[in-house]
Structures are given as structure tokens and as C-alpha cells.
Write a structure and sequence with these properties.
alpha/beta, five-stranded parallel sheet, two-stranded parallel sheet, 11 helices, 7 strands, globular, disordered N terminus
Length: 283
């Protein structure tokens, strides 16, 4: 299984995730040999990462592996995983995040009576509030109700002291596997973009590639940059623009073909403008 993970598109996956899969692979092998009928309780995951982590893509990797190894974890419901952003709530206010979380679990179960799968919980807003009663209540709820779930608690790695404090608090309630993911580099992102374009028969000239490398570097600096997802959207916009505006006899893209997506383009200006609007209204 590890060999399959390492091939093809999985070369983009961070080594931290591949190390985790390797550990699960060894666990699976040993359990099959020594304890084939014993229940397995995988530790939950404490995930720290920089901007552009691409959590959704990496959740797909973990889910695909675990679904192929049902003795490690069972899946049941309409979806194998979902993501939940835990909003901050001041101690004096009513904490409605647990009821909202329960509703999301119910939605994931669908017409079935329960959900079994992965749940990523983004806890970034609680970095400075990890000892407050609402957050502790949420951790207690997870501790009491998550036997059928693999919880992935996600937060940025910008402040090592805050990360360690959060990890210490969470570990009082959940068994944890610590995973730190480095964000993809501009070279990795442009390689991914070229893969996406190749799906539509497109290749880049060296000049076009250089333009898009600069565009990617600008996107990486934006607050709402989301790694591979952002670059995938860029690729789709390029394909749509090129193939909807005129008939091309070749999928070979020149600097002229991608000029509308260059560093000084309206495309970039609109992204910057949207980011400033979000900041203005308080996001």
C-alpha cells in the first residue's frame, strides 16, 4: 500500500502524512498476524501546518487508505469525512458550537442512524483560549462521543508556544498522533498546476511557466490562500479562458495565452480586492 501511495499524484503529499500511513501500514500488518479479532482504536490527530496546507486533499489520502483497511477503521454514513470550523465564543455567551457540531454529524450520517468516519475540526480561533470552559466542554464532548470517529484537530504552526499549550490541553482528553505539515513550495505548486493543465491537453512554454510561477508566489502571500486548492482553481480558470475564447489548434500555451493570469493582471487585482473587502468587513 505504501508503494501505491508514493506513486503518481501522491508525490505531493507531505512526508509527515506518508510517515503516518507507513505507521498504519505496520500496525495493520501486525494486527492481521497477531490480533486479527481485537478492536482497534486509532489515536486522533493533532495537525499543525502552515498556510496552504490543503487539508481536504490530505483527508482524501487518509480516508482512501483507511477505507482500504477496514480492520483499522469502519466507515458508515453518507460521506467518509467532513470538515468543521469551531467558532470562538466568549465565556459569558451561550456556546452553541456543540449543537451545531451534532447537526453536522447527523447530516454526515444521512438516512443512516450514525456516522463513522473522519472529522477535521479547525481550532485556530481557540489558540489563545484553549483553557476556557467552552473549549474544554467541546473536548469533553469529543472524548465521550468519538469512538466511531477519527478526529483531526487542525491549527496553524505560527507560534510554537501556543501550539504546545494547545497540544497539552487537548492531550488531557484525547489520545493524539502529532502531525506537522510543511506548506507546499512554489515549485511543487507549479508542478501540480502543470499536471492539472495536462489533463486538458495543455503544456506550458518556458515563458508561460515563468509568468505562472510569479502568479503562484503572489497567491501564496494572500490570507485566504489554500495551497493546492487555490492553484487548482487557477488551472481551471486558465483552461476555461483559453478554450472558451477561441479555437486553439494546439494545447501549447505561450506567454500570450496566460498573460491574463500574470502578476499585474486583473485576475490578481480582483483577488487582492476581495481579500481587502473581507478584512474591511471583519473576516
Amino acid at each position: 500500500m505504501k508503494k501505491q501511495i508514493m506513486e503518481g499524484n501522491s508525490k505531493r503529499y507531505p512526508s509527515a502524512y506518508l510517515s503516518l500511513i507507513e505507521k498504519w501500514d505496520q500496525l495493520n500488518s501486525n494486527l492481521e498476524a497477531e490480533s486479527p479479532n481485537a478492536p482497534v482504536f486509532l489515536p486522533d490527530i493533532f495537525l499543525t501546518s502552515g498556510s496552504g496546507r490543503g487539508n481536504t486533499m490530505l483527508l482524501h489520502l487518509l480516508t482512501d487508505y483507511l477505507m482500504a483497511h477496514p480492520n483499522l477503521m469502519k466507515f458508515y454514513g453518507d460521506v467518509p469525512f467532513f470538515e468543521f470550523y469551531l467558532n470562538y465564543c466568549e465565556p459569558k455567551n451561550y456556546f452553541d458550537e456543540i449543537p451545531r457540531f451534532i447537526r453536522e454529524v447527523t447530516n454526515a450520517a444521512g438516512f443512516r442512524n450514525e456516522f463513522k468516519g473522519l472529522i477535521l475540526v479547525e481550532i485556530s480561533e481557540w489558540m489563545d483560549h484553549c483553557t476556557e470552559k467552552h473549549f474544554i466542554n467541546f473536548l469533553e464532548y469529543l472524548s465521550d462521543n468519538s469512538d466511531n470517529w477519527l478526529i483531526v484537530l487542525s491549527m496553524p504552526d505560527r507560534d510554537s508556544e501556543k501550539v504546545e499549550r494547545m497540544r497539552s490541553v487537548v492531550s488531557a482528553f484525547l489520545r493524539l498522533e502529532i502531525v506537522n505539515v510543511e506548506p507546499p513550495t512554489d515549485i511543487e505548486l507549479i508542478a501540480f498546476l502543470k499536471e492539472q493543465l495536462a489533463l486538458y491537453g495543455m503544456t506550458l512554454s518556458s515563458e508561460a511557466e515563468n509568468i505562472l510561477i510569479e502568479t503562484t508566489r503572489i497567491l501564496m502571500q494572500h490570507e485566504f490562500y489554500d495551497g493546492y486548492k487555490t492553484v487548482r482553481n487557477l488551472g481551471r480558470d486558465i483552461v476555461y479562458s483559453v478554450y472558451s475564447n477561441r479555437r486553439k489548434r494546439s494545447g501549447y500555451l505561450t506567454s500570450r495565452d496566460v498573460a491574463a493570469f500574470g502578476p499585474g493582471s486583473e485576475y490578481i487585482s480582483q483577488i487582492v480586492s476581495k481579500q481587502q473587502q473581507f478584512k474591511h468587513i471583519g473576516f
